């Protein structure tokens, strides 16, 4: 299964915790996101990306200052 899309999160947006079901490439276009993967913190800024693998517990904390947009 493969998909592609863009999503915008409000200032201070939050997602999860959730179990990652598939590979997911998160490329941040605007803002920042702090992602916890199995409790390990990863910071991603605009222009950066991260590849998430299935079978892990993920939680996303988006920018407090600006809307965050990723694809």
Question: What's this model, at a glance?
Answer:
The chain is an all-beta fold.
Helix content: under 10%
Overall shape: it is globular
Give the N-to-C terminal Cα separation: 16 Å
Beta content? over 45%
Helix vs. strand class: mainly beta
Tell me which oligomeric state these chains represent.
single chain
Q: What gyration radius follows from the Cα positions, in whole Å? A: 11 Å
Write the element-wise H/E pattern from the N-terminal end onward. EEEEEEEE
- Secondary structure tally, helices: 0
Mean pLDDT: 93
Low-pLDDT sequence parts:
none
* Total DSSP E strands: 8
Largest sheet: 4 strands, antiparallel
Q: Enumerate the strands of the largest sheet in spatial order, edge to edge or round the barrel.
A: 1-8-3-6
Please, could you describe this protein's structure?
With 71 residues, this protein is mainly β. Helices cover 0% and strands 58% of the residues. It contains no helices and eight strands. The chain has strands at 7-9, 14-19, 24-30, 32-37, 40-45, 49-52, 57-62, 68-70. The strands form two sheets. A four-stranded antiparallel sheet has the order 1-8-3-6, with no helix packed on it. A hairpin with a 2-residue loop joins strand 4 and strand 5. The model has no long low-confidence stretch (mean pLDDT 93).
């Amino acid at each position: 299964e493969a998909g592609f899309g863009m999503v915008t999160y409000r200032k201070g947006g939050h997602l999860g915790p959730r179990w990652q079901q598939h590979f997911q490439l998160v490329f941040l276009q605007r803002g920042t996101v702090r992602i916890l993967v199995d409790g390990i913190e990863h910071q991603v800024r605009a222009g950066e990306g991260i590849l998430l693998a299935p079978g892990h517990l993920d939680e996303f904390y988006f920018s407090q200052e600006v809307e965050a947009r990723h694809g």
